[in-house]
Amino acid sequence: MSDRIVLAADYFRSYSVVGLLAVVGVLFVAVAFGAGKLLRPVVPTREKMLTYECGVDPVGEGWAHTQVRYYVYAFLYVIFAVDSVFLFPWATVFAAPGFGATTLVEMFVFLGFLALGLLYAYKKDVLSWT
Question: 0.90 cut: is pTM over it?
C-alpha cells in the first residue's frame, strides 16, 4: 500500500510542475499586458477610432459579405491535414507487436470519417475547378 501512495505522490508531483509553469505563464502574460496598459499614451482622436485597413479610409458600412468557398477550402485543408497528422504516428504503432488488429480497425473508422467529409465536399461540388 505504501508503494501505491509513493507512486501517486510522484504522479501528482510531476503534474504540479506543469501546473506551476502554466500559472507562471499566465502571470507573465498578465504582467506584460498590465505594463503595456499603464505605459502607453492614451490620446483618443476621431482618426484613431476609425477602422483601419491597408491605409485606405473606410467607405460604407462595416459589414462585408464573404464567400462560403473560403470556409470550404479551410474545411478541405483540415480534412487532409488531420489525415496526415494521424497517419504517420499510427504507422509506427501499427508496427508494434500486439497492436495490429486494434489499430487497423481504429484507423479504418478514422478514415471512414475523413471519407465522409470528402464525400460531403464532392456533393457540394467543391472539388471541381472553375
Answer: no
Asked if 50 and 58 count as a contact pair (C-beta separation under 8 A), the reply is yes
Biggest alpha carbon–alpha carbon distance for the chain: 73
Measured from the Cβ of residue 89, the count of other Cβ atoms closer than 10 Å reads 9
8 Å CB contact between 50 and 57: yes
Which residues make beta-bridge pairs with 129?
none
Cα distance between residue 27 and residue 35, in whole Å:
12
Percent pLDDT > 70 in the chain is 81
